[in-house]
Write a structure and sequence with these properties.
- It holds the Pfam family FUR.
- Homodimer.
- The structure is a single chain.
- By secondary structure, the chain is of the alpha+beta class.
- It folds into two domains: 108 residues, Orthogonal Bundle (Arc Repressor Mutant, subunit A), CATH 1.10.10.10; 63 residues, Dna Ligase, domain 1, CATH 3.30.1490.190.
- 52% of the residues lie in helices and 16% in strands.
- The strands form two sheets. A three-stranded antiparallel sheet has the order 1-3-2. A three-stranded mixed sheet has the order 5-4-6, with no helix packed on it.
- Helix 2 packs across helix 4 and helix 3 crosses helix 4.
- It is flat and about 60 Å long.
Length: 172
């Protein structure tokens, strides 16, 4: 006998979790702004909402494009400064890529991904064994684990294939 999953309830649960994360991020951001005598402007609030809604890693430029689809009056400098405020407030994690670019992602989640050092492609890893290994390693050391990020550096399948085909081509 198969059980039917009520997709509506599953979606509601996901929406509630997402709202809770947004509320927690907003609370942290408000505290950071107050501690630094800065104001929560409508533009900063919009940037925060877009950043958290998009989820995953993104460059400041990608965030700018997403924000400007909603409000074209938001400037590049406002987005770039605000994303740095997110980082300092602890609601964004910063990653530096081999191509020199910097990306940001919401903090607080467990993330694992592979990063191609040739083309910069980011491939998320959804593997319960990695999560289990992280938690078990922390437990063995008596470490209380709150969150983690794991990055594997190497070549994606397309770049590996391109390099291998370049090696097998006869030279003139």
């Amino acid at each position: 006998m198969r059980l039917k999953v009520n997709k509506g309830l599953k979606t509601q649960k996901y929406a509630c979790v997402k709202i809770k994360k947004m509320q927690e991020a907003l609370k942290s951001f408000k505290k950071y702004l107050a501690d630094n005598t800065l104001k929560l402007t409508q533009q900063r609030l919009l940037i925060l909402k877009v950043f958290l809604s998009e989820g995953g890693e993104m460059s400041s430029e990608k965030l700018l494009n997403a924000v400007q689809t909603i409000d074209t009056a938001v400037s590049r400098s406002t987005v770039y400064r605000t994303i740095k405020h997110f980082h300092h407030a602890g609601i964004a994690r910063c990653t530096h890529h081999s191509d020199g670019s910097t990306h940001y992602e919401p903090s607080g989640d467990h993330t694992s991904h592979m990063l191609c050092e040739r083309c910069g492609k980011i491939i998320p890893i959804r593997n319960p064994y990695i999560q289990c290994l992280q938690q078990e390693t922390a437990r063995q050391q008596g470490f209380t684990l709150y969150r983690y990020t794991t990055t594997f550096y190497g070549l994606c399948s397309e770049c590996t294939e391109a390099l291998q085909s370049a090696k097998t081509k006869p030279s003139g």
